[in-house]
UniProtKB/TrEMBL annotation:
<comment type="subunit">
    <text>Oligomeric complex that consists of at least the alpha, beta, beta', gamma, delta, epsilon and zeta subunits.</text>
</comment>
<keyword id="KW-0472">Membrane</keyword>
<comment type="function">
    <text>The zeta subunit may be involved in regulating the coat assembly and, hence, the rate of biosynthetic protein transport due to its association-dissociation properties with the coatomer complex.</text>
</comment>
<keyword id="KW-0963">Cytoplasm</keyword>
<keyword id="KW-0968">Cytoplasmic vesicle</keyword>
<keyword id="KW-0931">ER-Golgi transport</keyword>
<comment type="similarity">
    <text>Belongs to the adaptor complexes small subunit family.</text>
</comment>
<dbReference type="GO" id="GO:0000139">
    <property type="term" value="C:Golgi membrane"/>
</dbReference>
<keyword id="KW-0333">Golgi apparatus</keyword>
<protein>
    <recommendedName>
        <fullName>Coatomer subunit zeta</fullName>
    </recommendedName>
</protein>
<dbReference type="InterPro" id="IPR039652">
    <property type="entry name" value="Coatomer_zeta"/>
</dbReference>
<dbReference type="GO" id="GO:0006890">
    <property type="term" value="P:retrograde vesicle-mediated transport, Golgi to endoplasmic reticulum"/>
</dbReference>
<dbReference type="GO" id="GO:0006891">
    <property type="term" value="P:intra-Golgi vesicle-mediated transport"/>
</dbReference>
<dbReference type="InterPro" id="IPR011012">
    <property type="entry name" value="Longin-like_dom_sf"/>
</dbReference>
<keyword id="KW-0653">Protein transport</keyword>
<dbReference type="GO" id="GO:0006886">
    <property type="term" value="P:intracellular protein transport"/>
</dbReference>
<keyword id="KW-0813">Transport</keyword>
Length: 84
């Protein structure tokens, strides 16, 4: 049985499972997950989530649907590559 704490915040949701942090959000029809173990905490992941969601919105021109995300996939991958 897995015990987890679910915390709501402005950028998405945070799931804490032992020493694993999962930050996730849903934009339109697209789910975005960021996972870290020990190295980065939920605050750092929330900041990364904000940057990623902002760059996806900029690349798409608005909050992405599945179709718009697939149409702009190349541009989104280029933006995410530059972030990393």
């Amino acid at each position: 049985m897995l015990l987890a704490i679910l915390i709501s915040n402005f950028a998405g949701n945070i799931l804490l499972e032992r020493s694993v942090y999962i930050v996730y959000t849903v934009q339109g029809g697209v789910c975005i997950y960021i996972v870290s173990k020990d190295e980065y905490d939920e605050l750092a992941l929330t900041e990364v989530m904000f940057v990623i969601t902002s760059s996806i919105k900029d690349a798409c021109g608005k909050s992405p649907s599945e179709r718009l995300f697939l149409d702009k996939y190349g541009k989104i991958c280029l933006c995410l590559d530059e972030i990393v």
